[in-house]
Design brief:
By secondary structure, the protein is an all-alpha fold. The protein is built from nine helices and no strands. Helix 3 packs antiparallel against helix 9 and helix 7 packs antiparallel against helix 8. It is elongated.
Length: 138
């Protein structure tokens, strides 16, 4: 679900200066939402050169955060006890995760099911920062 800035950026007759003005008016939460939803690059490409840094710097910071959580997740998954539990029944794995890795619960279940995607990590970081559940992901 795109916000109004994303929708404006995909219009054929959009004005890059007006787009920049809209980006400047956005709260930080909405800028991060564009990143977590995966369409921030589309908006960055449409911005005038002198205004791209506004989103590029933030995007780089969020990508660094994503890499940090990816490393932590890989570290958890590399532990022998976790590897053994991933081979067990889902219920046993769930109890183990809830007891030991509550913070990474949603990501570990996606790993267990073999469905972890890049967008899942971005949405995890968004939810962690703004404390919202998946209600924006309809």
């Amino acid at each position: 679900m795109m916000n109004r800035v994303g929708k404006y950026a995909i219009q054929k007759d959009m004005d890059e200066t007006e787009l920049l003005k809209m980006v400047l008016e956005l709260p930080e939460k909405d800028k991060m939402l564009m990143w977590s939803e995966g369409y921030i690059d589309l908006v960055i490409d449409k911005l005038p050169e002198y205004g791209k840094d506004i989103l590029v710097i933030r995007k780089d910071k969020w990508e660094d955060t994503k890499a940090y959580y990816q490393d932590q997740l890989e570290d958890i998954l590399s532990k022998e006890k976790v590897k053994m539990k991933m081979k067990s029944e889902r219920k046993e794995f769930a109890l183990f995760v809830m007891e030991n890795f509550k913070k990474f619960q949603s990501l570990l279940f996606l790993c267990y099911d073999g469905n972890l995607k890049d967008v899942d990590l971005r949405k995890f970081i968004y939810r962690k920062r703004y404390g919202t559940r998946k209600n924006y992901l309809k």
